[in-house]
Design a protein that fits this description.
By secondary structure, the protein is an alpha+beta fold. It has 6 helices and 9 strands. The structure holds coenzyme A.
Amino acid sequence: MADINYTTLDWELCKKVADLLAICFPDMPIEDQYTQEELEEVAEVFPEGTIVALNGDQVVGMGTGIFTNLNFEQLPMTENELLYKDNEVINHDSNGDYYYGSDMAVHPQFRGRGIGRQIYNRRKAIVTDNNKLGFAAAAVLPGYADYKRTHDIHTYLEMVKRKEVFDSTLSMQMRNGFQVIKPIKDFFTYPQSDNWAALILWENPNLVVDQS
Ligand SMILES: CC(C)(COP(=O)(O)OP(=O)(O)OC[C@H]1O[C@@H](n2cnc3c(N)ncnc32)[C@H](O)[C@@H]1OP(=O)(O)O)[C@@H](O)C(=O)NCCC(=O)NCCS
């Protein structure tokens, strides 16, 4: 396989990135997915917050996010409310305390080759380079589909944490240093897990606290 190159978002990549998301989240309703036009806004407002993996000119991976203030006890009801002001303008605040990762996807034919890890490493660098508190995200839980009838969400998350169950998303995130803060429901539509997700956090290990 040819070498994978990593870049940040630009206007010309937006359609290909939107197409990749449609492949990687086939069950997610259209209103919960980035459209080409929304990605073009991201490319304009905060291009360096999105990492794109390229195999030649094919987009094979992506990870995107914004800077924002977060209160883990009082999150907005939905991810869309977190990402958009008045459902319209992207809610990126360069002074926000956290990098909130809103999407991450690797093309099915390119998974398991470390592309996800590379994208995470580059997004972690966004956090450390900008001295943010950490990198938060809401993780989809594809593996919960096989357990949701028999196990409550807390038990499932414990099993993933203890490595008794492999969840193709959350296990990978834990291997990348994320911890689970809590389960959250109906933050976005994800029928496989009955709309359960996990609020996860990677804390900036290099945080410099301003003492002044
Ligand atoms: C989650 C996703 C982005 C991961 O991308 P990826 O490029 O396959 O990730 P990587 O290859 O970097 O990492 C996969 C890790 O899982 C491990 N892994 C894969 N299958 C495994 C298994 N059955 N048991 C244990 N570990 C396994 C790999 O060894 C690797 O770990 P390592 O980096 O410590 O070696 C990709 O699966 C995806 O796009 N999923 C659909 C969309 C999605 O769920 N996105 C996340 C939204 S929150």
